[in-house]
RNA sequence: GCCCUCAUAGUCCAAUCGGUAGAGACAGCCGACUUAAAAUCGGUCCAGUGUGGGUUCGAGUCCCACUGGGGGCACCA
């Protein structure tokens, strides 16, 4: 903390020395701890918490460097900042490691967490470590279980038997969101279907609100994320239509259609072959055929089933439906091209105007009735269904109407005849949350022979995982390893006291992560899930930062849970994250880093070679935060060079701390204040890369002033150096802190006061006005910034060059003047 | 097929309201310092904004069409 007199011997910038000096300082000083009684306005900046898979990698380095910028800036602007950290510490990799190493998943998990925590401290994230939470701690998952029971009590958690996505490798079910192109998101194994009794959250009840509340997020969340969620929810409007079924006791079949105007074109009905409905409808003579068909489907992978050029297959069920309007007989078929879990699992076949139906009709030799004239070739001969707009034909009750009017009319007719109604349908399915694995929060339900499903009473929570299961005992067997632990499974029924069994499934880890941002407010509370009053003060999260890979899963689930909590009156807001920033990926050579490509870059090595600050600065400077960073295109050594250059400016300053800058070199002061003003706007706009460019500009200007201007003693140089240290503290905390100390200011720079810029210094003494003739630049003028339009026009027209153009091009038709920057002379 | 998004020097990227295409950096080249090199300092080269139209006095910026890259959804009736 020397005064660095001009005569003192200069040190060189040594990032290792600086890191070793300041990391312990921040920890002892409690620089980033949150005081709950702090009266200043609150700001909550949150990074998506990491999964503890080994040590931190380049992706973490980018995400957390970016997230730290708004957190640190809010601090400098005088906010009481909450910037917490935790771990998403349940999940399959821990279990796989445990099986391999004959250990308990907790060992691998908590050891990795410690490694990551140490790396985070080295990486100097401005975090309050007392907020730290782990979703695998009983003190946390007790409340995950409590949350489950709240949903259960509201009828939002239920069990149903239905065909589900099954990953044969992970030996567990998968949510729809976890199936990517027919394969398991985690391991890439083709997913198959299996009928299982599973737990679901009724997220579909919230489909409308999840969609409509996106209006609040417009502009504050990336467009593509909103688009993806909209896509995923997939609202489509149309009608439900009921078709009577021939036979004594047959229930009518209800279908959903977006094209009720094509009703007269229905020539057959199709039900999903894997749905119960098919079994109910089939006649005895066809039963065996249907069973054979259904058996065959089980072996077909999702990828094959979805391939477009597959042949249409199906079984006639031997039964007929009755057309709702014409009374015509319609054969009922079962096929795998109809999905059991969308709509009602049945469709009306309109081969003329739906490609899938047409292909099916051609394969099964069914009639094709054209009822919309689109001016295209007859689908029956072309093989191409005409799905576009057109005029209704062969449709007595809406003959001649255009598509939209025909749809409206068709719904009126259906409602009048009691045969159907307007209907909205969603692509979104209920959230399948049970997993047949060990390392997750057990579902707090007890199954009793007499009482059925019984929730675990509140005072018996948490239902903890056994701590003595390890290695092979955890191997996947198609049901949870917990099922084989009889001591754990056997329990007295809380309702009747008789012997009963625990539910042996565990919850999807997305349940854990759907509410952790609320828990950060009081991570150690054993009394309640979170303190509502304080949560309402801190939340919604003002800036949420994380990767776009969570655009649907985590973010949709969190939005859903927040709405449920709102309905339970536990929070007073309906959206958890007011603003979202998706940082890009870190690539190397144009591609994601991966072992198989051998292009991985080790974060630890980068930190050892260039220092923490240089790596952080590189991440931020490389590109706008939402763009990818290609490590092959950037220069951490260049960043290190710049940091040394900035650091030397602070070292060169010879004026004393507290020196009044007002008499300092005006030119440098103008730069400094311009930079402060610009940087504020850039930070608001999340253009963090440009912020760094501005500090570089400031450092360059200060260097010039020291070497060939007013010299190191000038107060403007100190002002520039202090400003640079403050801005740099957002991205390069070690260097900034050391500069701040060298400048004789009290640490920490992280809690310093952001400088006010002086408006007067932003005003230029003269400004360069451009003079155009017909929009082309022809001359320039140095003018006062407050010149009048008339004066500027007069000066511009008087310029000899401009006169010459006027003479050549003909008379002046119009002069556009935008004082003080531009004159455009329009000649004819 | 539908939807979102991007395209500016060799490279990564800037450019409030439509108003001088360049703030910053990497790489390159030249110079100063040095016995030499490194480090440092200074200087310098480099595009008319993917293509074609349109609006305008004026377009990187707004509109339309197309091309190319990235991403999402897709047998969803």
UniProtKB/TrEMBL annotation:
The lineage of its organism: Bacteria, Bacillati, Actinomycetota, Actinomycetes, Micrococcales. HAMAP family: Leu_tRNA_synth_B. It catalyses: tRNA(Leu) + L-leucine + ATP = L-leucyl-tRNA(Leu) + AMP + diphosphate. Residues 428-631 form the Aminoacyl-tRNA synthetase class Ia domain. GO terms for biological process: leucyl-tRNA aminoacylation. Residues 45-189 form the Methionyl/Leucyl tRNA synthetase domain. It holds the Pfam family Anticodon_1. PROSITE patterns: AA_TRNA_LIGASE_I (PS00178). It is an enzyme of class 6 (ligase). GO terms for cellular component: cytosol. This is Leucine--tRNA ligase. Residues 230-414 form the Leucyl-tRNA synthetase editing domain.
């Amino acid at each position: 903390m020397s005064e660095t007199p001009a005569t003192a011997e200069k040190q060189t910038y040594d990032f290792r020395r600086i890191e070793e000096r300041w990391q312990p300082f921040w920890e002892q000083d409690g620089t980033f701890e949150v005081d709950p009684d702090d009266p200043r306005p609150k700001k909550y900046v949150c990074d998506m918490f990491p999964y503890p898979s080994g040590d931190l990698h380049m992706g973490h380095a980018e995400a957390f460097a970016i997230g730290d910028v708004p957190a640190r800036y809010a601090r400098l602007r005088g906010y009481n900042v909450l910037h917490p950290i935790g771990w998403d510490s349940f999940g399959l990799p821990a279990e796989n490691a445990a099986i391999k190493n004959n250990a308990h998943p907790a060992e691998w998990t908590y050891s990795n967490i410690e490694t990551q925590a140490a790396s985070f401290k080295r990486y100097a994230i401005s975090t309050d470590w007392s907020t730290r939470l782990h979703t695998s701690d009983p003190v946390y998952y007790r409340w995950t279980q409590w949350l489950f029971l709240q949903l259960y009590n509201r009828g939002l958690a239920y069990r149903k038997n239905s065909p589900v996505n099954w990953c044969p490798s992970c030996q567990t079910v998968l949510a729809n969101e976890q199936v990517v192109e027919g394969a398991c998101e985690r391991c890439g194994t083709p997913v198959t279907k299996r009928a299982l009794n599973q737990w679901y959250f009724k997220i579909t009840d919230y489909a409308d609100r999840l969609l409509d509340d996106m209006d609040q997020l417009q502009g504050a969340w990336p467009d593509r994320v909103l688009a993806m969620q909209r896509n995923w929810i997939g609202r489509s409007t149309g009608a439900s239509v009921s078709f009577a079924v021939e036979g004594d006791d047959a229930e009518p079949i209800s279908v959903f259609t977006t094209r009720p105007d094509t009703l007269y074109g229905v020539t057959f009905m199709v039900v999903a072959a894997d749905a119960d409905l098919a079994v109910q409808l089939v006649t005895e003579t066809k039963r065996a055929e249907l069973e054979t068909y259904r058996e065959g489907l089980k072996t077909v992978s999702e990828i094959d089933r979805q391939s477009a050029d597959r042949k249409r297959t199906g079984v006639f069920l031997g039964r007929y439906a009755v057309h709702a309007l014409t009374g015509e007989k319609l054969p009922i078929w079962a096929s795998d091209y109809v999905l059991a879990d969308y709509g009602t699992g049945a469709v009306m076949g309109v081969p003329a105007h739906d490609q899938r139906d047409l292909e099916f009709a051609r394969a099964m030799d069914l009639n094709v009735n054209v009822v919309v004239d689109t001016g295209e070739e007859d689908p029956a001969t072309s093989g191409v269904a005409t799905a576009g707009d057109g005029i209704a034909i062969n449709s007595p009750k809406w003959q001649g109407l255009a598509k939209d009017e025909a749809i409206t009319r068709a719904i009126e007719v259906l409602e009048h005849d009691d045969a159907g109604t307007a209907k909205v349908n969603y692509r979104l399915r209920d959230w399948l949350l049970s997993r047949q694995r060990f390392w997750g929060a057990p579902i707090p339900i007890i199954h009793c022979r007499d009482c059925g499903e019984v929730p675990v009473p509140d005072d018996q929570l948490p239902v903890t995982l056994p701590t003595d299961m390890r290695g092979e005992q955890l191997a996947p067997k198609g049901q949870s390893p917990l099922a084989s632990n009889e001591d754990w499974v056997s329990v007295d029924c809380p309702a009747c006291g008789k012997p009963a069994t625990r539910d042996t499934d565990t919850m999807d880890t997305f349940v854990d992560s759907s509410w952790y941002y609320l828990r950060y407010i009081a991570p150690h509370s054993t009394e309640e899930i979170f303190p509502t009053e304080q949560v309402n003060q801190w939340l919604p999260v003002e800036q949420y930062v994380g990767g776009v890979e969570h655009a649907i899963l985590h973010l949709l689930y969190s939005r859903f849970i927040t709405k449920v909590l709102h309905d339970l009156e536990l929070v007073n807001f309906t959206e958890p994250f007011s603003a979202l920033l998706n940082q890009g990926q870190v690539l190397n050579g144009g591609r994601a880093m991966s072992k198989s490509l051998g292009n991985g870059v080790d974060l630890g090595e980068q930190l050892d070679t260039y220092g923490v600050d240089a790596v952080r600065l590189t991440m931020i400077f490389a590109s706008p935060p939402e763009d990818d960073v290609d490590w092959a295109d950037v220069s951490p050594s260049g960043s290190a060079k710049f940091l040394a250059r900035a650091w030397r400016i602070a070292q060169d300053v010879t004026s004393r701390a507290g020196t009044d800058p007002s008499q300092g070199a005006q030119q440098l002061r103008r730069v400094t204040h311009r930079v402060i003003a610009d940087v504020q706007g850039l930070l608001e706009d999340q253009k963090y890369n440009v912020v760094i460019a501005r500090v570089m500009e400031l450092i360059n200007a200060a260097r010039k002033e020291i070497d060939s201007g007013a010299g190191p003693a000038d107060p403007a140089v100190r002002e520039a150096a202090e400003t640079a240290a403050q801005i740099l503290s957002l991205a390069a905390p070690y260097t900034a802190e050391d500069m701040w100390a060298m400048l004789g200011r009290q640490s920490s720079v992280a809690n310093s006061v952001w400088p006010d810029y002086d408006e007067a210094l932003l005003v230029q003494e003269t400004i360069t006005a451009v003079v155009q003739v017909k929009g082309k630049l022809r001359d320039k003028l140095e003018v006062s910034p407050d010149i009048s339009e008339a004066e500027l026009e007069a000066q511009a027209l008087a310029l000899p060059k401009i006169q010459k153009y006027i003479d050549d091009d003909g008379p002046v038709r119009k002069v556009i003047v935008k004082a003080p920057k531009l004159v455009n002379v329009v000649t004819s």
